[in-house]
């Protein structure tokens, strides 16, 4: 869902920007004295955007105002949905831990992220680790970023991450599963001299 929102966000911003650029550029060009084509909405630099005739054409028709209000209401709802999706927090703040007695305990998401980061950074060859929890509080997901030193095998680092840090976090929080997305990146270093 997050990838879909990201694509919709970029497409909407791109379309709005393109429309505003074309309209603003054409108004500026006509205002500077460029002759527009015959089909263009402006005739000269003294032309108005909507004439009195265009503005009052459908005012007396019964369908005009309900249509205008409905279109504006849909645009406002779409803008509010887009704004809420952009401003929504994507980081998980709490994790629901099963205590075994039918009750549940809440664990701060930042605390679990800190423990995961600490255990992942303690692995041999890991210079830095970053963890973000996403998803729902009963079914969290982890996004892990590891910066590896040049001599480390990525397969070994990934195996250590899943068998040590993620398994420990899953077991200690009483989760049936803890899906994770791991991104491994090597630390930049100078080339070693070979003699």
What descriptors fit this protein?
alpha+beta; two-stranded antiparallel sheet; three-stranded mixed beta sheet; 5 strands; elongated; 195 residues; single chain
Describe, in plain words, how this protein is organized in 3D.
This protein is of the alpha+beta class and 195 residues long. The protein is built from five helices and five strands; from the N terminus they run H-H-H-E-E-H-E-E-H-E. The strands form two sheets. A three-stranded mixed β-sheet has the order 3-4-5. Strands 1-2 form a two-stranded antiparallel sheet. Helix 4 packs antiparallel against helix 5 (154-172).
Give the topology:
Layout: H1 2-31, H2 52-55, H3 64-87, E1 94-98, E2 104-108, H4 109-121, E3 126-135, E4 140-148, H5 154-172, E5 180-186
Parallel strand pairs: 4-5
Antiparallel strand pairs: 1-2, 3-4
Radius of gyration: 28 Å
- Helical residue percent? 40-55%
Helix tally equals 5
Q: What characteristic shape results from the CA principal axes? A: elongated
Largest sheet: 3 strands, mixed
Structural class: alpha+beta
Q: Unreliable segments (pLDDT under 50, ≥5 consecutive)? A: none
What is the strand tally?
Answer: 5
What's the helix-strand series?
Answer: HHHEEHEEHE
Mean pLDDT: 83
Q: What is the end-to-end distance?
A: 53 Å
* Spatial strand order of the main sheet: 3-4-5
- Approximately how much beta-strand content do the residues carry? 15-25%
């Amino acid at each position: 869902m997050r990838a879909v929102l990201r694509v919709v966000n970029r497409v909407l911003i791109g379309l709005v920007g393109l429309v505003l650029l074309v309209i603003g550029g054409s108004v500026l060009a006509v205002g500077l004295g460029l002759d527009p084509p015959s089909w263009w909405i402006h005739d000269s630099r003294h032309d108005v955007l909507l004439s009195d005739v265009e503005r009052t054409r459908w005012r007396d028709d019964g369908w005009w105002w309900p249509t205008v209000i409905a279109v504006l209401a849909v645009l406002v709802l779409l803008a509010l949905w887009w704004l809420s999706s952009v401003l929504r927090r994507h980081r998980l703040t709490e994790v629901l831990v099963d205590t075994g007695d039918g009750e549940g305990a809440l664990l701060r998401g930042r605390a679990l992220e800190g423990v995961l980061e600490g255990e992942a950074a303690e692995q041999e060859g890991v210079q830095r680790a970053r963890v973000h929890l996403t998803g729902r509080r009963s079914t969290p997901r982890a996004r892990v970023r590891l910066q590896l030193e040049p001599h480390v095998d990525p397969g070994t680092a990934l195996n250590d991450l899943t068998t040590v840090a993620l398994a420990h976090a899953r077991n200690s929080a009483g989760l049936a599963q803890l899906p994770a997305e791991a991104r491994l990146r090597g630390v930049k270093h100078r080339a070693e001299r070979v003699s």
